[in-house]
Specification:
About 45% of the residues lie in helices and about 15% in strands. It is α/β, with parallel strands linked by helices. The protein has a 6-stranded mixed β-sheet, with helices on both faces. Strands 4-8-10-11 form a 4-stranded mixed β-sheet. It starts with 6 loop residues before the first strand and ends in a 16-residue tail after the last helix.
């Protein structure tokens, strides 16, 4: 078994359990998380005793999305009006965004063992995408989903559209509003909402039922669903997400993006307040009531 620093991996019965393990930053997705999760998926797929994989998060979040903290080597000197890193051409900057998320989420979707998302808390931005690309998604009553990064300048994901439908996905994807677990259930993002303390037990029980079915049958029936969706256009749609993420991050008005970028470089809390403050209270979840 590999040594991991930002995830946990263990086999419990017929399940391979992957836990995002950066609770101090709400399990934000770093390059290390991505690399280690890929290795853990390889380990689970290669283990004949593992019949299904469960992904969850440590602490109060499933994942807050892509890591917004300082990154080694990240250029902080941006050139305006487009906010392109100094010394980099616009075309290079756009190319750097292409293919970032689409391939990663497709890889999870195309695994030949079922992946169950145990959504234990906040699932924000790319964290919501990770949650939704699991084959079966079960939420704790404490789960919250959103794509608040669209308020700064970012793309949504077709995964929301596929699961929630055009009208609901536009309602929440155009403004980044939060939704709670019951609203996620209503619009089809998850299949079930359970008491928080029951979440992992519910997922392990489902894995044990899957394990009663011959693995060849599970593999074939999983492929019927996942590859069938790709034949209907899912793969192209997710790759389009990656293509359009480039202009979503670059084609922004300086007066909108520059203050947010500067606040993010200075203090992440200040940035989040500047970005999300005008949208509060949220329609659902823990921030649905005005603060006293």
């Amino acid at each position: 078994m590999a040594d991991y620093t930002e995830i946990l991996y263990e086999r419990r019965g017929a399940a391979g359990l992957i836990t995002l393990n950066r609770p101090q930053v709400m399990n934000a997705i770093s390059p290390t998380v991505q690399h280690e999760m890929s290795a853990a998926l390889d380990e689970a797929v290669a283990d004949p005793e593992v019949r299904a994989i469960i992904i969850t998060g440590a602490g109060r979040a499933f994942s807050a999305g892509m890591d917004q903290g300082p990154k080694p080597g990240r250029r902080r000197d941006l050139e305006w009006p487009y906010g392109v890193p100094a010394g980099q051409s616009a075309s290079d900057w756009i190319d750097s965004w292409r293919g970032r998320e689409g391939n990663e989420f497709l890889r999870l979707w195309e695994l030949d063992k079922p992946v169950i998302g145990a959504i234990n808390g906040w699932a924000m931005g790319a964290g919501s995408w990770l949650a939704l690309c699991t084959h079966i998604t079960i939420a704790s009553e404490q789960a919250v989903f959103a794509q608040p990064e669209v308020r700064h300048g970012s793309n949504t994901s077709f995964l929301w559209t596929m699961l929630a439908g055009v009208k609901n996905s536009l309602r929440y994807g155009l403004v980044g509003d939060h939704i709670d677990a019951q609203e996620a259930l209503r619009i089809g993002l998850v299949i079930k909402v359970v008491p928080h303390e029951r979440l992992l037990d519910e997922c392990f029980e489902l894995v044990e039922r899957i394990a009663l079915v011959p693995p060849e049958t599970v593999k074939i029936n999983l492929a019927i669903a996942t590859l069938g969706m790709e034949m209907m256009g899912l793969r192209d749609a997710l790759m389009l997400d990656s293509q359009l993420s480039a202009p979503a991050h670059v084609m922004l008005r300086e007066e909108h993006r520059r203050p947010l970028n500067e606040a993010r470089e200075k203090n992440i809390r200040e940035y989040l307040q500047l970005r999300d403050g005008p949208f509060q209270p949220e329609p659902f979840g823990p921030r649905s009531k005005p603060r006293e």
